[in-house]
C-alpha cells in the first residue's frame, strides 16, 4: 500500500530540500521560466502556486508570508506588483511544465517550468541574448583579425567570456 | 552451502530469456516539422510543442 508517501524527497535531507525549493521558486518568479528536471519542477509547482495566491491577496500579512519564504525582496516585489495582478481571474494552474528530453551527463529527464502568459517576456529575453551573442561574436572576430594583422603571436582567448547557454 | 544438483541446459537459459527482448519506443510525429519525436515532449528537432516554439534549437554549424 502506497499510503502516506506523497511528495518528493529529491535525495536530500529536509533542510537541503527546503533551501533548494526556495531557490527554485525565487528563480522562477524572477525569470518567468527555468530549466530543471521533471521531479524538481513537479515538486516546486504547488509552492509557486501558493506564492502566487499570496501575491493575489496583496495585503501586508501576505507580503510578510512571501518574504519569509522567498530569498530576495526583489522577487517579492515582482510577485506582488506584476505576477499577482496578472493571474487575477485564474484560479490555480498558473504554471506550465514541458519536458525537453534528457540531460547529457546523467540522463536526467529535463523540463522547463514557466508562468503562463510569460511568452512576451521570454521572447524579449531571447532576443536580448541573441543580440548580446552576435555583438560578442563580432568583437571576437575583430580582435582575432587585429591579432592576425599584428603577426598572430598573441591570441585573444576565446571562451574567456563564457559560452552562453540557452 | 547449497549447490545446483544438475547442469543447466542452453535451452533452459534461452527459454528463460525469451521474454527479455527490448521493445522499441513508440514515437509520434511532430506536427510542425514532421520528424518523429517522443510523445509529450518538445520536439528535439524544431523545439516546438503544442503549436509554438518553446525551446531554441542550436543549428548545426
Q: In which range does the helix fraction of chain B lie?
A: 10-25%
As residue ranges, the low-confidence spans of chain A are: none
- Count structural domains of chain A: 2
How many beta-strand runs of chain A?
3
Structural class, from secondary structure content of chain B?
alpha+beta
Q: Quaternary status of these chains?
A: heterodimer
Radius of gyration of chain A: 21 Å
The largest chain-to-chain contact, stated as pair and per-chain residue counts, equals: A-B, 8 and 11 residues
What is the residue-averaged pLDDT of chain A? 89
Poorly predicted regions of chain B? none
Q: Mean of the pLDDT scores of chain B?
A: 86
CATH homology superfamily of the largest domain in chain A? Ribosomal protein L17
What's the number of extended β-strand segments of chain B? 4
Report the sheet-strand fraction of chain B. 5-15%
Question: How does the helix and strand content of chain A classify structurally?
Answer: alpha+beta
| Strand content bin of chain A | 5-15%
Biggest sheet statistics of chain A: 3 strands, antiparallel
Explained architecture:
The complex is a heterodimer of chains A (166) and B (61). Chain A has 166 residues and is of the alpha+beta class. Chain A folds into two domains: 116 residues, 50s Ribosomal Protein L17, Chain: A (Alpha-Beta Complex); 33 residues. Helix content of chain A is 56%, strand content 12%. Chain A has a three-stranded antiparallel beta sheet, covered by helices on one side. In chain A, strand 2 and strand 3 form a beta hairpin. Chain A is globular, with a radius of gyration of 21 Å. With 61 residues, chain B is of the alpha+beta class. Chain B has a two-stranded antiparallel ribbon. Chain B has a two-stranded antiparallel ribbon with strand order 3-4. In chain B, a hairpin with a 2-residue loop joins strand 3 and strand 4. The model of chain B has no long low-confidence stretch (mean pLDDT 86). The interface between A and B is small, with 8 and 11 residues.
Amino acid at each position: 500500500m502506497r499510503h502516506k508517501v506523497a511528495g518528493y524527497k529529491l535525495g536530500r535531507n529536509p533542510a537541503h530540500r527546503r533551501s533548494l525549493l526556495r531557490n527554485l521558486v525565487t528563480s522562477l518568479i524572477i525569470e518567468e521560466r527555468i530549466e530543471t528536471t521533471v521531479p524538481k519542477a513537479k515538486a516546486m509547482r504547488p509552492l509557486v502556486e501558493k506564492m502566487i495566491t499570496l501575491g493575489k491577496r496583496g495585503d501586508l500579512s501576505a507580503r510578510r508570508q512571501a518574504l519569509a519564504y522567498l530569498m530576495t525582496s526583489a522577487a517579492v516585489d515582482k510577485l506582488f506588483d506584476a505576477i499577482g495582478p496578472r493571474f487575477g481571474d485564474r484560479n490555480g494552474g498558473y504554471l506550465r511544465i514541458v519536458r525537453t528530453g534528457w540531460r547529457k551527463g546523467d540522463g536526467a529527464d529535463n523540463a522547463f517550468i514557466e508562468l503562463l502568459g510569460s511568452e512576451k517576456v521570454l521572447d524579449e529575453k531571447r532576443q536580448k541574448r541573441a543580440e548580446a551573442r552576435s555583438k560578442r561574436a563580432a568583437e571576437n572576430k575583430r580582435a582575432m583579425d587585429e591579432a592576425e594583422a599584428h603577426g598572430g603571436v598573441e591570441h585573444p582567448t576565446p571562451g574567456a567570456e563564457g559560452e552562453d547557454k540557452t | 552451502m547449497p549447490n545446483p544438483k544438475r547442469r543447466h541446459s542452453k535451452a533452459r537459459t534461452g527459454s528463460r530469456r525469451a521474454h527479455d527482448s527490448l521493445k522499441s519506443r513508440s514515437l509520434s510525429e511532430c506536427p510542425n516539422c514532421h520528424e518523429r519525436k517522443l510523445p509529450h515532449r518538445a520536439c528535439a528537432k524544431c523545439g516546438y510543442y503544442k503549436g509554438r516554439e518553446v525551446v531554441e534549437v542550436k543549428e548545426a554549424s
